[in-house]
Please model this.
Amino acid sequence: MDSPFLSTQWISSPLRGAPRTPVPVPYFRKSFELHAPARQATLHITALGVYEAEINGQRIGDHVLAPGWTDYGKRVAYQSYDVTSAIKAGANTLGVILADGWFSGFLAWDARQHYGDRPQLAAVLTVQTLDGAVTEIATDLTWKTETGPILLSDMLRGESYDATLEQEGWSGPEFDDSAWRPVRLAPDPAISLVRSAAPPVRRISELTPVASRKMEPWLDGGVRFDFGQNFSGRLRVKIRAKRGTTLTLRHSEVLNPDGTLYEENLRTATAVDHYTCRGGETETWEPRFTFHGFRYANVSGMAESDSLEVTGIVLHSDTPLIGSFSCSHPLLNKLQSNIVWGQKSNFLEIPTDCPQRDERLGWTGDAQVFARTACFNMDVRGFFRKWMQDIRDAQKPNGAVPPVAPDVAVNIEDGGPAWADATIICPWTVYLCYGDTGILADHYESMERYMDFLANHRCKDHIRSHPDVDPWGGFGDWLSLDSAPKVEGTTPKDLIGTAFYANNADLMAKIALVLGRRQDAGKYTALHGRIVQAFQRRFVTADGLLTSGTQTAYAIALHFGLIPEAHRATAGAALVRDIEKREFHLATGFVGTPYILDALESTGHLDIAYKLLEQETFPSWLFPVKNGATTIWERWDGWTPEKGFQDKSMNSFNHYAYGAVGAWMYRTVAGLDTDPIAPGYRRIIFRPRPGGSISHAQASLDAPCGRTGIRWTLEDRALALELTVPKGAEGILSAPPDFPSEHKTFGPGVHRLLLQKADAPA
Ligand code: BGC
Model:
């Protein structure tokens, strides 16, 4: 289809600001006459920046921060809205508010204007009237612009709105715009305008404060609200106050010991909104173009007698919840809730590392680590499809994949092991979970180029991140407790690099087979074999141990199948020894955390896996839960009773990476998985592995062919199971080793069965 934008020019305001000084948000308008009522009217609109459109005073669509974030040097998405009902015969006006957003706002650390010096707009409204005429209203030099009540709007800094500056009826035809200025033609960016395919960001839900407290003037002053949940979004305030009263809205994830907001970890993302009241009636305001990561908010500036009501507006990409997990352990249920909230908070247009500080980038490593869990909780197919395009746009001509996508601000060519590998792991995971071969086909060429890059520039004798060719070697086992540079026992970067390289080759062989590329499959299978040999030569000792004894080294080597079969038991025992030495505590960082429980289970140490999962003392998954976390912390030691807060320069309370354990709870505690050869749960593997203190568990999932689920209860020696298989699928039961079962394959329907524990051998 031809682009609807052929006759459109890009426009902008004359105002631009500088790398650290933002300017007020411009409003744009254009009036036009129609001689008959509309039969059909469509608004196609996009921006380098973020927009909200109105026709005759009516807000168009419900997207937030549209058109979304892409590599603006290459492409931008556009939206098409049916606006027939907003158009009338006679005079009409199309109005647009255009803010900096990701394009020219503060984005990563303390600078703005990463892509351009001011936002720009392209829109075309096509109206077919009942008399058969077709009218096209496109952005051009006839539009007018002026600033209005939004004095500042920035994703990191916040929004300031002065309602006394509102221009009543600005997007309606009766408005007198003779004082408004001409727009400026913006350079045509010469990039692709693509119909937006990603789930848009929306206002997904609302939170009411669970507590509020008047703050003493020498503390924050004003009123402190606690929403009981850390989330991404903003406040909506309802206020009745004197004209000119300015409210200040501040946000934080946690509180300082003295009860004030802990804002230090926001770094330069001040996250402060201001609202100046019109006065008179009760007025309602919510910022338009910013979002914050917070649980607590402080609202100040009103008088004692003013009435104030606040609501938390939860924003994220509209990726519906499709999965649920729960069990008999209340803290694990809270952990699952925290994982889901971490996902909600960070699946906002792209998979971000965190929603609160001055970063919020599409870190590839974080997304890769969490992808499997994400696919269980929500339908993230469209979200990842769009982000894989961002990765392709970020990929360098030599095939390297940077650590963030869209590629901005970070300036590292190759994201390194476990980061750049997202380019293979994420599409494969989406394929597994939804049976989507399209994502593999679209991305295949890019993956191949990436594999060539690794072979040609990052490996020596199949050792990736070999210090001779790759002195940096990537981020290592990021934030592991033994990852400090001089700590003895840090997982070597070439071990991590080679392990992930082997896993890439293995996945590439599988992907090539799915796509019917047999020759490629053979090539990658052979490569995989050579990498495994190289890994074993360099990192596995003659008696089956690894040269590095870290939990992460063993977790990845076991999980990726890099230890010779005959030595797996020895390696598993070595992993257990380290865990025992730490009194059943974790030491893994981003790299090892997703796999450690799998590695234990697959070497016969399910009991140890449960000990780690149920551990409540530091460092463990449940330590933050015990200490009031409502999302997943960036670091195991984000806060400890002994040391208080970690270094404020990197201490987010809403990073999802360690929430990667969620996939293990679905797959192994509850026992719900897909067979890789019939992906998308066309063949469901029911594989419950009860353990620890858990007496019952359930997981359910709206898989592509319908709802599947498992529920089990363990009583004495009996395991009661309920298995749900949707139409078009089949289920296979893999009973726990000590519960022999005759029932193996199940057709569509709900199946209830009772398994009896086998008698212990005499
Ligand atoms: C981010 C991480 C990211 C890392 C790269 C951090 O600043 O928050 O989550 O993966 O940098 O090492």
Q: What stands out?
A: The longest strand covers residues 223-240.
